[in-house]
Each structure stands twice: as structure tokens, then as C-alpha cells.
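[Meeting: bench + compute handoff]

Bench side (C.D.) handed over the final construct sequence. Compute side (W.E.) agreed to return the predicted structure before the next meeting so the bench team could plan truncations. Sequence as handed over:
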Amino acid sequence: MGKIISFMHISLDGFVAGPKGEMNWIKVNEEIFDHVAMRIGKSDTALYGRVTYQMMENYWPTAADKPSASKHDMEHSKWYNKAQKVVLSKTMKGAVLNNTQIISDNLSERINELKQQSGKEMLLFGSPSATHSLMQHNLIDGYWLFVNPIILGQGIPLFEDLKHKTTLKLLTTKQFTCGVTELNYIIES
């Protein structure tokens, strides 16, 4: 059975974006890109909210074709184009997109069907609203967090309006030279 892992960059005080969705505080470098690429390469399904999906779709399909494409751009573009994409959106209902499934209703039922079909980890990239929806339905199996060395003070929180306590088990940590720390958790049953 496939598990859904939420992949997020997060501030030390728990925000995944600034008040207006700003993400210019996120630190990334080749060391992080290489580390992330190893795990992403083991997955074949990406989950997104509508906003994040549209942002990804505007860049990744052709990122490798640009003359200035980095190693990361080429590798992730190749993965993105092969990966099955699942978009959680009420407004894209009925859209027909290549290699992309839209889930606009019966969230719990539809996600559980996906989990039954997939033997691999499904990565939920960014997408705070989609993450919050999946949290409310207890559909997230783990968190792959990249804690950035910054306190934002305000913004879009990762954990919002939770109605239940969730116990996590820390699997791994990794410190990167840029000051970011990876925390890899699974939810304990």
C-alpha cells in the first residue's frame, strides 16, 4: 500500500510560506537538490493542490530544454514528465490533462483508492491547502520537512486547525551546509 508523505520547506516557527505566499526565504543548493532527487526518484506519483500544480506545470515540462538548464532542472524535469500527477482541486473539475488525475470530491475515498493502487511512496509537494485537507481526513502518513534557519513571525502555517493529536516517529535527520535541517517523520499508528 502506498503512503502519502508531505514534502515541505518550513520556517523554524512552523510556516510554509509568508503571509502573501512568499517563499523567497527558502534555502536550496546543489547539496539539497541531490539529496532530494534520490528520494523523489523512488516515487512515481506527485500530489499537488491546484496552485502548486499550475506553478509546476508552467515550469517543469520544458525546464530541461532551456539552454541554461541546471543538472537539477534536467533531472527533475525528466522525473516530472514521467510521474503520475494527482491534483486536489474543486475548480479544475472535469479537466482532462496528460498523465494527471483531478480529485475534486470524495477526497477520503479517492485518496484511499490511490493508496491501495500504489506500492510506492506518493509525495505531496508543497500545497498548504491540499496538505491541510489531507490532514483533516488523516490521510498523510509522514512528513519530510526541510527546516530553514529563519523565523518568519507570520505566514501560512503547516499545522492548522488540527482536531486530534498526532504522534510522530523520527526516521532520519540531515544537516546541510546552508543551515537547513531535514526531518523525516512517519505517523505512528
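W.E. noted at the follow-up: The chain has one domain: 11-55+85-187. C.D. will use this when planning the next construct.
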